[in-house]
Amino acid sequence: MMRRGFLKTALAAVGALGAASFLQRRGEAAEGDFPVKLAPEAWKAKLSPDQYAVLREEATERPFSSALNENKQAGLYACAGCDNPVYSSATKFDSGTGWPSFYAPVSERAIGSTTDYKLIYPRTEVHCARCGGHLGHVFDDGPQPTGKRHCINGVALTFRPGATTIAS
């Protein structure tokens, strides 16, 4: 009996993920006045197809597909679109979700957010404050001291080993 319940739950989850992928809006990343602006053709030339899909079309990479999810080195994570430092290894934690997760950005000025209704209910979408590239989402189930989980697409990031803070 428990096996049947587990299978129903697993099938519902797979269906929800499939629906989420189907319902995802495919448009240019967060609208706004960002310091770094490129035409779609220039972004396509600069980014890999996967990076373009996530950063510019707000797609989501498959869970557990990014090497950065398992990265344990000290350093900074920067936006793959414009090299803006957005997260530090000092705030990275293993959420078990399959995406790199952080409890805080390097600075509140490094990221921006909008409300996303792609899954019917509201979620907080995170984007790079410099280029508007879609990074991921923020949830209220993270560890202290913030209680936040910044669930970030690894393909939207590059990693710089070394210092874990940025100069103010």
What does this structure look like?
The protein is an alpha+beta fold and about 170 residues long. It has one domain (about 1-160): Beta Complex (Metal Binding Protein, Guanine Nucleotide Exchange Factor, Chain A). Helix content is about 25%, strand content about 25%. It has helices spanning about 1-25, 40-45, 50-55; strands spanning about 75-80, 85-90, 90-95, 100, 110-120, 120-130, 135-140, 150, 155-160. The chain has a 6-stranded antiparallel beta sheet. A hairpin with a 7-residue loop joins strand 3 (about 90-95) and strand 4. The radius of gyration is 16 Å and the shape is globular. Mean pLDDT is about 85; it is low at about 10-30.
Strand content: 25-35%
Q: Could you give the distance between the termini? A: 58 Å
Supply Rg. Answer: 16 Å
According to CATH, what is the topology? Metal Binding Protein, Guanine Nucleotide Exchange Factor, Chain A
Specify the CATH class.
Mainly Beta
Major sheet details: 6 strands, antiparallel
Estimate the global geometry from the Cα principal axes: globular
Beta strand count: 9
Low-pLDDT stretches are 10-28
Compute the average pLDDT.
85
Query: CATH homologous superfamily, by name?
Result: Peptide methionine sulfoxide reductase
Strand order of the largest sheet: 3-4-8-7-6-5
